[in-house]
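Message: Just now I want nothing more than another pair of eyes on a protein record. I am handing you a single protein, as its sequence and its fold in token form. As I understand it, each token names a local backbone shape. Take your time, and here it is.
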Amino acid sequence: MNVSVVVPAYNEACRIGAVLRPLVSCSHVDEVIVVDDGSDDGTAEVASRFGVQVISLPENRGKAAALDEGVAQARNDILLFLDADLVGLKEEHIERFISAYRPREVDMVVGVFANGRMNTDIAQKINPFASGQRMLSKTLWERAKENVAEMDYGIEIALSKLAAKEGWRKERVKLDGVTHILKEEKRGFTRGVCDRLKMYGDMIRWLVKKV
């Protein structure tokens, strides 16, 4: 089974290496695509040092649109989406993810943080449907990406809603010891809070939207 990994990234130069390092070491990963979503901190340059494919968008277009750009360039039908700010990701997590995906038996695998940081663990226990760590086919992505330019952070909710509506077979993978950097830590308190509120707004908008 050949897997293409798509990593959307916006100003993650200091963090993306921790995600790419285990990816390029994993024998089960056939292709890694980083989509630099209009960063101005050298994210694309850092990613290119790992020998992965880098797509640089001229301006920030949002998470859903960045993912779609990566999917369009992917040579494989099986896709793994990973956030660029993960902490604690290891090769074994990636292998566990890929092992859980069984074509014709499972339609989508969702990774859920565990034993990483209390706040991210609790957040994903409350709302695992918002996880950005997912594995699915390109065919299912094409069904979910309607209005992708407007989705931004609402993409995970849109995927989860469509999965429930169409009865996709889902599997959850516990990502022990994995967490991510909070927006307030990356961008400062005020900017981080604003970005977090926007993220929640996108999620709520797609939660109430009919699919």
